Amino acid sequence: MSGSTEGRQPGRPRAGGRLAAYAVLGVLVIFTLLPFTWLVLAALDQRASIFVKMPEGWTLRNFVDLFGDQDGFRLIRNSLIYAGGATLLLVVTTTMAGYVLSRFNFPGRHGLMLGILLIRVIPPTATIAPLYVTATDLHLLDTYHGMILILAALEAPLVIWIMKGFFDTVPIEIEEAAWVDGASRLRATFGIVLPLAGPGVAAGGLIGFIGAWNQFLIPLVLISDQDKVPISIGLFRAWVSYTRVDWGFLAALAVVYVIPAVAFYVVARRALQASISGSLAGT
Amino acid sequence: MRPIRGWRDALTVILFLTPALALVGLFIVWPAVWAVAQSFTNRSLTGASARHVEFVGLDNYARLLRDDDFRSSFWRTAWFVIVSAIIGQTVVGFLIAYLMAERPRWRLRFGAAFAAIFVLPLAVPETVAALAWASMANGTDDGMLNRLLATIGLGPVRWLQDYAFATVSVVNIWRGISFAMVLFAAAFAGLPQQVLEASVVDGASGWQQLRQIILPILRPQILIFLMLTTITSFGIFGLVYFLTRGGPGNETELVGIYIYNQAFRFFEIGYGSAAGVLLLLILLPLGAVYVRLMKDQA
Fold it and tell me: Which site among A22, A113, A122, A125 would you substitute to test the B interface, given the most B Cβ atoms closer than 10 Å to its Cβ?
């Protein structure tokens, strides 16, 4: 009875299977999105609380306040300085390194690539205590440039790999043809290869930006000056002080904080994936 | 790629590599090396031993291994990794990738929409993820989870007080699903469709196909993900610290939080560095396996 499968094609999944699949995915969608409901509703609520509820009067007031308010503005500005500065530094340094790693076969290159990959997977918690001492010795605590340098350093291994991968996709013959035509080595590099690898360089920059923008542990340890803390620490301090919090303001800040992270993630996702799961061909 | 010809090439290589490697060397490699050196001292941030740093040999390590708080934070972290990363993220992420992967005679719609939604928990900053869950898991009647429970007549549950470990584990699963899904989805896209088709024609059930064809082929990607997520979850800090700060008591004090507390709450930098070195000793071999797996993929 239940064994009679003659009627259907072998192996054809029953419609029930597909329905069950949609049901499972539907449940997971709810699980995924549920935590965000409070964030969105509270940000638009004039009288927001820590609890999820329909706004008592929809408003964009919280967002306006955010940029008008000194604290809110300062947090956003600081995050932009840290992440923006780290990104600039990263793009310059990792483009150079990625180019050389892609183009020249020098002794130790292979080991260097693998070493960078290994460093990349080590979480900052393992070295945070000595990093603090290093930063102290170099007088980098509570400074913008110190944060920028350290954030860039933490993202550098990943971004070097991404940049190198993109230069690999630009055939060296193109470059060589330009030399033959009389362009200098540097002009060939910057005039021809960089434009071709441009989208990749941009993707690498975006990924570096996301990492620096999201950082929590590093500013928590290195920045104690309240005027210099980034958004991540602002959110944390507000949450810790709990009873004295303007929840609508906090939610709006979180939403503003999320936007570049998610937008850049969507744009650069492919590059990130390729560097994580992709092969190491050419090392 | 070409070999180095002449001193101009050599100079280019050195000049171009130096800035990036200097950053990595100064702020990642050097602190790690320094940590090993400092872990043999009694250096602290305050008090007498801040000024008179003494060599104490293996004392810090002996103390760590005797320290019940460290030992329990270590086992707690191992358990956290097993439950949330190795089992939770991997199984759910694989399930989603499996359901959404196009195979012979299997195609779901809205794939792009699903993928876009599932990626959100990872794309948002960890502080925002934690804040969102802080509201969700609020222990009073009005918390979202408790309201849902109330509809079936249960609760309220004080999630972050009475079930803190379970709650942060679920949060880590929630956040890591998409990473697993993305990695596995890429792997599924590379499956040989003819082989799958042939198995379907031969009458293999979905389960047989999964066990005997898909899983063996995807083994390297699964291993790579397991290594990555184990390392990442072992060193986790922000997501959990934001929600519980290691509490209540030290129920959610994972190794990362233990290190932070020792170094920056109790100002014992030498001791915290020693704990960091032990964490490195655990993670570096795993990292080496990861690098090895990636190499084999090439």
Answer: A125
